[in-house]
Amino acid sequence: xxxxxxxxxxxxxxxxxxxxxxxxxxxxxxxxxxxxxxxxxxxxxxxxxxxxxxxxxxxxxxxxxxxxxxxxxxxxxxxxxxxxxxxxxxxxxxxxxxxxxxxxxxxxxxxxxxxxxxxxxxxxxxxxxxxxxxxxxxxxxxxxxxxxxxxxxxxxxxxxxxxxxxxxxxxxxxxxxxxxxxxxxxxxxxxxxxxxxxxxxxxxxxxxxxxxxxxxxxxxxxxxxxxxxxxxxxxxxxxxxxxxxxxxxxxxxxxxxxxxxxxxxxxxxxxxxxxxxxxxxxxxxxxxxxxxxxxxxxxxxxxxxxxxxxxxxxxxxxxxxxxxxxxxxxxxxxxxxxxx
Length: 340
Ligand SMILES: Cc1cc2nc3c(=O)[nH]c(=O)nc-3n(C[C@H](O)[C@H](O)[C@H](O)COP(=O)(O)OP(=O)(O)OC[C@H]3O[C@@H](n4cnc5c(N)ncnc54)[C@H](O)[C@@H]3O)c2cc1C
Prior knowledge:
19% strand; four-stranded antiparallel β-sheet; Butyryl-CoA Dehydrogenase, subunit A, domain 3; binds flavin-adenine dinucleotide; four-stranded mixed β-sheet; 3 domains; alpha+beta; Butyryl-Coa Dehydrogenase, subunit A, domain 1; Butyryl-CoA Dehydrogenase, subunit A, domain 2
């Protein structure tokens, strides 16, 4: 087993680290304080190729791997997790399902702008009564005159209300088989009549990220906007969420590292009893715990990311468990680190 990053992964890490320090960090306070979306930062991330990192060159991507994307998300989130989640949601939730399950026409139509970061695509799964229990989707779509007509609501949807949205892929019940709902994925381009992006949430954090509820009222999209097979929506979102979990865990590793960076810098600057507090053993214990927690989390996230990249569209039970563990480990406050 090789724990070393490849030269390419190291180059991506260094580029993103420099970019985060020089571009994302200086903008972070202004974006956070005024709840602004960082259009200029997003444009520059697009120019760096970050929105196309794990996609093939054939669709305009950089031909990198999933671990490289996670490293990029970690480094960007070290400076601003709101910008990190913008990248994570755009790539893992927006573009990836189109890349993995889309038809040739869908890929050709949508991916060029998405992989360049010129436009953002959203993923609408969560509903007021379908969050963790995502299969409880109530949004419905029925076929009328060669179109899918959608009615329902989604909540907490990232990247749908900016000035550069291209559309959203939603899950909807399209029929029943026995007691089970048939769930399909449908692509709804921005501007489709009956597709409404409602007022933005007032969140406690991630202020530079864009999050809105959505409503669909007799919203009709062409039959060819079905993404993948009819009834395949449940399987698709499980796959999408496995990658999404790992990438969110990578984001959290970036936040943990930022906490350690800030704590270490402060401990060297703040003095008591004639010495920087970093010289006091009680503080050293805390810093050591924080460094250890961040490193353990990074290791499990990188392992899950490398496995996800290898396994492709058919993920194993073991990988799904590893992905869930990596997210659980990093996003649940752990004892001794004050929920770093
Ligand atoms: C900022 C932000 C951005 C988001 N972006 C998107 C997006 O782009 N697209 C999208 O589709 N969704 C998005 N989400 C939604 C997110 O995926 C959901 O919030 C998540 O799935 C949890 O659903 P919920 O909020 O309805 O909570 P619930 O599922 O209602 O859970 C509430 C609480 O109950 C607990 N709970 C749930 N089930 C069980 C159980 N069986 N046993 C014990 N406890 C349980 C949970 O742990 C939680 O503490 C976003 C959310 C946020 C906050």
